[in-house]
Amino acid sequence: MPRRKLDRLDRLARLRRVEKLRAASQAAEAQGVHHKLLTLHQRSDEIARGLGQGGGAETGDDLLRRMAFASGLQTIRQETGAESRKAEGMARDAMAKLRAAERRHDVVGDQLLAEQRRVDAAAELRAASELARNLKSS
After folding, report:
1. Which contiguous run of DSSP H or E holds residue 70?
2. Helix axes 2-53, 60-137, angle to 10 degrees
3. Domain total of the chain
4. Contact by Cβ (8 Å): 99, 26
5. Which CATH number goes with the domain that contains 87?
6. How far is the C-alpha of 71 from the C-alpha of 89, rounded, in Å?
7. pLDDT for 67-81, tens place per residue?
8. To 5 degrees, how large is the angle CA 76–CA 28–CA 9?
9. Digit-coded pLDDT (tens) for 43-99
10. Of 4, 20, 57, 95, whose CB count within 10 A is highest?
């Protein structure tokens, strides 16, 4: 009976380990996406500042092209900013899930260790009892 409980806890510990690894992978991926979007947003800001500092347009056609480009750039900045904030939230959630998975893994590890100690103590007690019976019967 104790061996079955020990085996179940061992299987649960392995499942928790896999869960923890999966959560770590998802957290790393979410942080990577957030970093890429943040970098894109910052780069868009740099381009917009450079565009604002550039010289004036030579012709009306140049002005129209420049305004269209600035408008498209503004759209990109807004979208990447929003996506970056969303990705930041997802990264925070993924880290929270990782911390929870680590706690569950630690709890099961502690339970497994305690159960192993109980099994070992019971085996030691049985061995001592057997030795006492053998000594008594001799």
Report:
1. helix 60-137
2. 160
3. 1
4. no
5. 1.10.287
6. 27
7. 888 899 999 999 999
8. 150
9. 988 888 887 776 666 888 888 888 888 899 999 999 999 999 999 999 999 999 999
10. 20
